Amino acid sequence: MDIANLQQIFTETFPHAAEAITVTAPGRVNLIGEHTDYNDGFVLPMAIDAKIVLVAAKRSDRQVQVYSVDFRAMDTFSLDEIEPTQKHRWSNYMRGMALMIQEAVGSPLQGMDIIMQGNVPQGAGLSSSAALEVGTAVVINELNQLQLDPVLMATLAQKAENQFVGVQCGIMDQFISMLGEAGHALFLDCRSLEYQKVPAPFHEAGAAIAVIDTAVQRGLVDSKYNERRQQCEDAVKALQQWQPDLRSLRDVGPELRPKVDELPAILAKRARHVVDENQRVIDSAAALKAGDLPAFGRYMNASHDSLRDDYEVSCRELDLLVDLVRANPETYGARMTGAGFGGCTVSLIPSSEVADLEQRVLPEYQAKTGLQARLFVFNAAAGARKL
Ligand code: ADP
Ligand code: MG
Does residue 383 belong to any structural domain of this protein? Predict the structure, then answer.
């Protein structure tokens, strides 16, 4: 990403603009803790060094003009009447963000001129949408000198995605894009929003977080996602026969855990994944703190196997990639990441083995599926901020 070039495009596009600020917001990869967020549970994401950059200046009126370098398109809207647009769908993340912040602060915002560009792969499950929302939130916050709390901005970004764009997502993506710390993952409690930095100095330890995009066109995700959410709620209701005050699968403790296996088969499998995955997040965060990469890798492997066999949200292509990566004996661990049915795998490998992924795993995957997977190596990056 050439930031100086983007600032240059800003000046050319808006020659009469006020003094501009530059904001970046990262995508993210979830290292472990899948399908736990909507069960009030734990996740362990890290912000990545792929990001969206926005250059923006205040206007004296209430118009917003946004130019997307990637879509080569300009969208204009008024802050007095913020509606979704069919024509520039990418703009809805920004419109929604403006609406949610305006409602939250209860006073009108200033208009803005904005140019933006990103290198977070779109639609691959690395949360380019959260990066766009959170980046927009920081732009609005800075230009209007609102001094909003970052956690509030993250929850407003989630609200924009849920209510304005119409995508049901948990809080993880917006939270990590906003609050990520360089060289760290975040252990996040999705119920209380309490969080802890966990050191993730993979590069320094001679290791790499390798993300491979399956390139699968995802179709079923929404209906399957809603079905899983419903099954988790059903499992909670069923478990209430033994613990009437049980609120969510997050609250299943050691005494209730054996009852999970007594539930009707499907509910038992779903609940088992969520309950044990929460424990894996706690244990794997401890392994990372201790610098124990082999242990961390074993938790990643167990997470994938559970998502494949019990939660049943993997697919042939994800399983194939995971198996191909694990076939290298040096691999610490590999798993699917994100909602499933496509999207990406995440692996922890020695840095020296990145070449093996390029030279062996990707070609074998292509030979078996006809799909061209893309490989990324990410470091743990900082959250959204003004440069
Ligand atoms: P994901 O968040 O997994 O990448 P989504 O479908 O949730 O996938 O969000 C992708 C959408 O976000 C894109 O279709 C586009 O509308 C918007 N978006 C992401 N990155 C950019 C960008 N660099 N410029 C404009 N819009 C973007
Ligand atoms: Mg998204």
Answer: no
Cα dihedral sign, 132-135-137-140:
negative
pLDDT tens digits for range 213-240: 999 987 767 789 889 999 999 999 999 9
Give yes or no: residues 222 and 266 share one domain: yes
- Give the domain CATH number at 265: 3.30.70.890
Burial zone of 103 (CB within 10 Å; 0-12 exposed, 13-18 middle, 19+ buried):
exposed
What CATH number corresponds to the domain at position 160?
A: 3.30.230.10
Among 128, 172, 217, the mutation site with the greatest number of ligand 1 atoms within 8 A of its Cβ is 128
Three-state secondary structure string covering 308-354: HHCCCCCCHHHHHHHHHHHCCCCCCEEEEECCCCCCEEEEEEEHHHH
Percentage of residues in the chain having pLDDT higher than 90: 94
Quote the ligand 1 centre to 87 CA distance (angstroms): 15
Lowest average pLDDT, out of 25-29, 125-129, 319-323, goes to: 125-129
Residues 61 and 138 both lie in one domain: yes
Residues whose beta carbon lies within 6 Å of some atom of ligand 1: 52, 68, 70-71, 89-90, 93, 116-118, 120, 122-129, 132
My answer on whether 50 and 115 are in the same domain is yes
Ligand 1: which residue has its CA nearest to atom 15? 90
| Catalytic-labelled residue, pool 40, 75, 113, 173 | 173
- Cβ atoms of 100 and 160 within 8 Å: the answer is yes
CA separation, residue 100 to residues 97, 103, 136 (Å): 5, 5, 11
**Residue ID of nearest Cα to ligand 1 atom 9:** 129
Q: Which SS3 state, helix, strand or coil, does residue 197 take?
A: strand
Counting atoms of ligand 1 from 1, which one is nearest the CA of 118?
23
Residue span of the structural domain in which 170 resides: 3-199
Q: Is 173 part of the annotated catalytic residue set?
A: yes
Query: Which ligand approaches the C-alpha of residue 75 most closely?
Result: 1
Query: How far apart, in whole angstroms, are the C-alpha atoms of residue 293 and residue 289?
Result: 10
Amino acid code (one letter) for 191 = R
Cα separation, 172 vs 185, whole angstroms = 12
CA 127–ligand 2 middle distance (angstroms): 4
Mutating to test ligand 1, I would choose from 51, 94, 122, 374 the residue with most ligand atoms within 8 A of its C-beta, which is 122
